[in-house]
């Protein structure tokens, strides 16, 4: 007889929603996609033309949707193999399947208590609050349609979860292995993430974390350190490392996080570094920011300099990441049951390093928008 108390329970949740950015799937999608991304965001036309060109170089197809389909399959497989009976849906901010359509489908299917996994591991306006605003907008649309409103909660940031960090350690080791053998031991590690305006970085995370760089920079530095330490333990070599940025947009007079990966490669070359590994810790899959900004642009810069580089892969649909999501779902479900008086104890919360597990509920003032808008799944 199976012990039913051993069955993993996601109660009170009745569905998981994978919430992502979305990307174009053909040349005719590129301009409407970019219009969706930049609606009301004041991105210079020149930058948009430039970014459109990146997509056209790849046939107008972003890899991100295929990667999310893979992640969806990996999650369903992991849940099924571990007896977790929780349907998984997928919706995007900027392209089909659109979040509003998915949420409508979920409600029509009878889902009333929804947990959200965003494909962004860190605190920031773009990676956290903007998704919460998108959820609020979608809920408002369902309300105007007279549909019942589900309760929506968002999983905590998972940047320091071992299921996110450990695949990146393996990926960094693999990328070191792609460098010429004689250059490996002294190769630099360039941990890279999306640049954001310094004003957005400074106010990222809960108000208590605000200050220079905010939670955004602190969380990335933590992951960089965790990966660098684990790599040193495995190779015995003390690779110099730095956190750098990529994919800057916005007006030139507005300060964004620096240095840019290309400037950093130039600096490394100038200092006589023998080789470098680019480790895109800021991204969950090898989407366009990785394929173009690193594999195309930064790789060309390195070739021009004569600096050997390789690039570590992101976690993507790694089974360890899928297992981490299951762990986070079960943890949050148990936390809710505890809060509602249905469980004897709060669950353990898995996190590497010293920052500790991130908050479940974004407090008031977490990653504020420039102009305040309704946001779901938080305290405000
Ligand atoms: C922090 C962050 C992440 C990581 C967290 C997360 O994953 O959420 C991220 C991810 C992504 N960004 C993406 C694409 C774009 N981001 C843009 C613009 C911007 N991103 C920003 C930040 C971030 N972006 C910011 C501050 C802007 C400026 C304007 C604004 O405040 O909105 C623009 C407009 C043109 C341009 O400015 O480059 C595009 C096309 C794609 C899809 C890639 C694909 O298609 O494979 C993905 C996963
Ligand atoms: Fe936040």
TrEMBL record:
Keyword Lyase listed: yes
Binding site for Fe(2+): 194, 289
Localization: Cytoplasm
Xref: InterPro entries: Ferrochelatase (IPR001015), Ferrochelatase_C (IPR033644), Ferrochelatase_N (IPR033659)
Pathway membership: Porphyrin-containing compound metabolism; protoheme biosynthesis
SUPFAM superfamilies given in the database record: Chelatase
Positions bound to Fe-coproporphyrin III: 62, 131
EC number: 4.99.1.9
CDD domains in alphabetical order: Ferrochelatase_C, Ferrochelatase_N
GO molecular function, one term: lyase activity
Coiled coil regions in record: none
Keywords on record: Cytoplasm, Heme biosynthesis, Iron, Lyase, Metal-binding, Porphyrin biosynthesis
Catalysis: reaction(s): Fe-coproporphyrin III + 2 H(+) = coproporphyrin III + Fe(2+)
Gene3D superfamilies in UniProt: 3.40.50.1400
Family: Belongs to the ferrochelatase family.
Biological role stated in the UniProt entry: Involved in coproporphyrin-dependent heme b biosynthesis. Catalyzes the insertion of ferrous iron into coproporphyrin III to form Fe-coproporphyrin III.
Listed NCBIfam families: PRK00035.2-1 (NF000689)
Matching PANTHER family: FERROCHELATASE, FERROCHELATASE, MITOCHONDRIAL
Protein name per UniProt: Coproporphyrin III ferrochelatase
Protein species of origin: Streptomyces coffeae
Species classification: Bacteria, Bacillati, Actinomycetota, Actinomycetes, Kitasatosporales
Gene transcribed to yield this protein: cpfC
